[in-house]
Amino acid sequence: MPFIFYTDKSSKFPLSISAMTSLKWFALVLCLVLTACNNQASTQKTATLEVESSHSDRMNIVSPDWGNAATLTAMGHAPIATGDVRVWDRWVGSPKLPASITDLGIRYQPNAELIAQLPVDMVIDNYFYEHARNLYGDVPAESVMSAAKGETATWADYTEPTRELGVLIDNPKMAEDYIVQSQKDIQLASQQFQQRYPKAEKFAVVQFADANNMRMYVANSLFQPALEQMGRELVVLGKGNNWGFVPIRMGDLAQLDDETCLLIIDPLSPITRAEIVDSLIWQRLGYGNTRCVGELPPVWIYGGMSSLVSLANNLSEVSLKGGEVL
Amino acid sequence: MSANADTHNNPINNHTDSSHNDSAHTMTLASQAATVSKPSSTSSKQSSSPLNQPPNQPNPQTSLFANLSWRLWAMLIGLAALSLWSSWALLDRQWTRPFSDLFIPSMQLDIASMAIQLHIVATSVVALLAGGLLGVVSILLQQLVKNPLASDTTLGVGVGAQLAMLIVTLFLPSLAIYGGLYVAFAGAIISMGLVFALSAPSRFNPLILILAGLVVNILLAAVANVLVLFFAERSNGMLSWAAGFLAQNSWHTSIALVITAALMAVICLPLLKPLTLMSLDDTQAKRLGVPINGIRAIVVLVVAVVTALVISEVGLIGFIGLGAASLVNALGISSIGKRLVAAFGLGALLLLLTSNVALLLEPILDMQIPAGAMTGILGAPLIIWLILRQRRERIETVTPMLTGKHTSIAFWRWGVGVLAVIILACLFVQDINGWGLSTDWALTQQYRLPRSLSAAATGLMLAIAGVLLQTLTRNPMASPEVLGVSSGAALGVILGFLLLPSLGLSAGSGTLLISGLSGAMAVLLLIIWLARRVSSGYLLLVGIGIAAMMDGVMHMVKLSGDPRLEAMLSWLSGTTYSAQPSTVWYLIGIATILFILSLLLIKPLRVLGLGTGVARNLGVAVTPVTLSLLALVAALSTASTLAVGPLSFIGLMVPHLATSLGAVKLERQLPLAALLGAGVMVIADWIGRYVIFPYELPAGTIAAIIGGGYFLWLIRKVPASASR
Question: Which residues contact A252 (CB under 8 A, 6 or more apart)?
């Protein structure tokens, strides 16, 4: 496809070039060749305008952070763009993002240049993203944070941010409906789980950093309200940091009693998995034999309401191995 | 002690100075007989070594050196005592059963006790063996290349093994599980081969060798950085391996390392004699029937295998090898057998002590502390202390290495070129619809121009800082990045971020700027203070140490799991991401002002470059000029570090690039380097922003890769130009 200059300004470009030496001519020719090789014509302006004119009925949200993006998507009002889309499946899992979503690049460094090209009405982030705030130009930005307010995370800590999201997208009812639906979903998952593993009462939740080091999620993490809603108990070894976990070693797992079921949150790299199997302590701990263990698909730990629902759904489908609770 | 050392050194110092006066920048490397600073030969000439000196020759210095080495031996005993004490403290805190229970077979203990037993005993065994092996490896490398700065860390052996492991882990995980050792070995051999191949034409000139190692290190680290950034989702688990956790949960690693150490001892025994002969003189050794190349090949293989094994088992443990070898050198041990044994012992003790300190600190800091990160943090003070101890013992002459023919430079062409690059970088971009020429002024003005301009400004500032530092310290390897000034600025920012709130100050950009500036200034003052006391080769060690310290802190920050800190890390990772139309003009203004200031200082700087003595005779007020230059370099480094992060190559590379393009004199080198720095940084920034759009790679990393590659190519050319 031939190259098209699509604005008046661009015609000045060759004029300014003509003043330069032959070297720069070469560079220009190179650029033009490269451009010509590219099939995507730059018809961006018109495309953008069309979208802008047709979006008035629905707020276009950009959410670099995964937590709000997941909750909004689950609610039925998916953002038009979020960060790190290519690894969403590995870390967040469900809900699935719509295929039309735009990838903003690295979450902590959302591509501001790209955001400016999107027909965006509002950016929703949380306070970890404050450094990027002044890059959004004149687009309004709001902060919504789903996290424990005190030492123990409660159901309200997750319903309140969901309602805030509902207000921000001008659709409080959508949020209320979603909260009700979430509670129902969790109850359903809870019943399923009860049928499959009636004796599994107590859970400890860890995520491996390597074979020896792991994070144990404690009372101020989202596992507390999720398990509480399901009528189960979260067993912890100590008080967590601000981010809801306490770093422990594999040996510390010996402090858990035999009735406590260990839940391992994915992703778990194949190398770490091999090292864990190799570990003398792991062999002695007897998870999968004398003690109960299960592996859960990824769930976004710093997420909101949708993380609670996915967690409950994952748990209802988990296959536990070993121990007397089965 | 000092009297003797001074008399020994001064002639060499004078020689260095006078030769600088003679031919200033136009001299080539080979024409300068760089005093090969082989650890044993130089010290054995001074100390009455039983091997190399006829015993009947009276030596008045013996008592002095005995005195010196007594102090060092006392330090060694102190080190052992500290290790023991820390082990005891650890036991006291964690082990509740009788002491003898520590050594009964693991399976007879209950799980909790077994976990603690492994945590204390197996970890200690691994620490002792890994540290010892790294110490031996470093001494072997030093014998091989006759360079007291050689070690697994400085010659890039470790980082090569690490990168190979990283690549395999990302793309072929099953190979990493079952063939980690072979992969790490291949990586170690390749990176070591690269360093050797680059320095072989210059006959392993100590300077070129370490420089090649340094550049390979930074280059491979930058590549690893890109991989981890882009494949972050696959590299989880790599993070803690890269940080070097020693804590064990089985005996596998201990057993593997015991076997390695035993094999190593068996292999090293027959190597002792040929190595002793080779340490004197290669040609003589050849005459005595030593198969020099064969021995070299064996040593290289042993080094690669052992380093690969340690790295694949426990991760990257920097500095222990270098620290142990430097201590051995400081002790003045000259017999190779004793050097190897001492290096094993010292390396073992150093790593055990580090590991114990890390384990003892864990409950205090409430996080898991990797020993590898800890060695980096403790390494810098150790290196500085070591340098101060042995500052008068060995010397290297450092000469300007890359030369160019003096040619006239059309500055306006370069200026127009930089402008054209900036314009192109703003016009030829990838946007929401893919590649194309975009003339959307709103986007250009808001996002593209500020970033390109701030890249240009930081490139310019780093290049100027590099020229100033290289001239001031008369060291062609000096640059804000290499000497640790940029790392100091970054450390200052991190510390400011962590500590300022507790002092009741908000961690805004202004206060962070000041804390960064004080970090850079502290490092610079340290370096200048040391520069008057030690040879320039050791200054590099300080820089490497400070950079490793920052690396350790970064690892800890990453492992802390604090999302605020992670966000700050990405800010420090070296991008122009935060550039804004409202602030970029300040940055440009700062760069211009500092550029003009540096132009004003050219004349006194050139005189200073001849040596302080000469400068004083010529009527230059040395101290005020030096101090103002330092302040200037600190300002330049801090401003650029805050903008693009501590990792980049501009300051080291661009001054040489300018020289090789014909800007030999300082008056020409400074402006040309400034323009080149700006141009390279703009290109690096553009690549980082658009090649994997909407994802981004830090401009500093791209610059390190471009610059590192180009620089290695330049080093390769050195001997050719020298032979002319």
Answer: A216, A237, B115
Q: Which helix (H) or strand (E) holds B402?
A: none
A95: distance to nearest CA of chain B, Å?
19
Q: Look at residue B383 and tell me whether its pLDDT is greater than 50.
A: yes
Quote the mean pLDDT of chain B: 77
Helical residues (DSSP H) of B250-319, grouped into ranges: 252-280, 282-287, 292-314
The answer, for A2 touching chain B at a CB cutoff of 8 Å, is no
Residue B679 CB neighbour total at 10 angstroms: 24
What is the least distance, in Å, from the CA of A149 to any CA of chain B?
17
- Check whether B675 has a pLDDT greater than 80: yes
pTM over 0.80: no
Find residues 18-37 of chain A whose CB sits inside 8 Å of chain B: 20-21, 23-24, 27-28, 31, 34-35
Whether B350 has a pLDDT exceeding 60, the answer reads yes
Q: Are B138 and B324 in contact (CB under 8 A)?
A: yes
Q: Is the pLDDT of residue B19 over 60?
A: no
User: Quick one: closest CA in A to B367, which residue?
Assistant: A247
CB pair distance less than 8 Å for A129 and B567: yes
- Which of A40, A43, A250 shows the shortest C-beta gap to B435? A40
Instruction: Tell if the CB–CB gap between A209 and B559 is shorter than 8 Å.
Output: yes
Q: Which helix (H) or strand (E) holds A300?
A: none
Question: Which runs of consecutive H residues, i.e. helices, occur in B118-172?
Answer: 123-145, 157-171
What's the pLDDT score for residue B136? 94
Chain A residues whose CB is inside 8 A of the B424 CB are: 27-28, 31
Mean pLDDT computed over B315-334: 83
Question: Looking at residues A289-318, what average pLDDT do you find?
Answer: 91
Distance from CA of A191 to the nearest CA of B (A): 33
Peptide bond preceding A95 in cis form (omega within 30 of 0):
yes
Per-residue confidence at B526, pLDDT binned at 50, 70, 90? confident
Q: Shortest CA distance to B644 belongs to which of B589, B582, B701, B565?
A: B701
pLDDT computed for residue B6 by the predictor: 36
pLDDT of residue B39: 39
Residue of A nearest to B123 (CA): A212
Give the SS3 label for residue A63.
strand
Residues A213, B234: C-beta atoms closer than 8 Å = no
Q: Which of B169, B249, B578 sits opposite A251 (nearest CB)?
A: B249
Q: Can you give the three-state secondary structure of B528-555, one letter per residue?
A: HHHHCCCCHHHHHHHHHHHHHHHHHHHH
Q: Are B438 and B444 in contact (CB under 8 A)?
A: yes
Cα A100–Cα A82–Cα B422 angle in degrees, nearest 5:
100
Can you give the length of chain B in residues? Answer: 724
Q: Does A210 touch chain B (CB under 8 A)?
A: yes
Give the residue from chain A lying closest to B175, CA to CA: A271
Residue A183 pLDDT: 93
B694 contacts in chain A (CB < 8 Å) = 102-105, 111, 114
* Closest Cβ–Cβ partner in A103, A251, A285 for B694: A103
Give burial (CB, 10 Å; 0-12/13-18/19+) of B107: exposed
Print the SS3 string covering B57-123.
CCCCCHHHHHHHHHHHHHHHHHHHHHHHHHHHHHHHHHCCCCHHHHHCCHHHCCHHHHHHHHHHHHH
pLDDT in tens, B588-622: 998 999 999 999 888 888 887 777 777 777 777 77
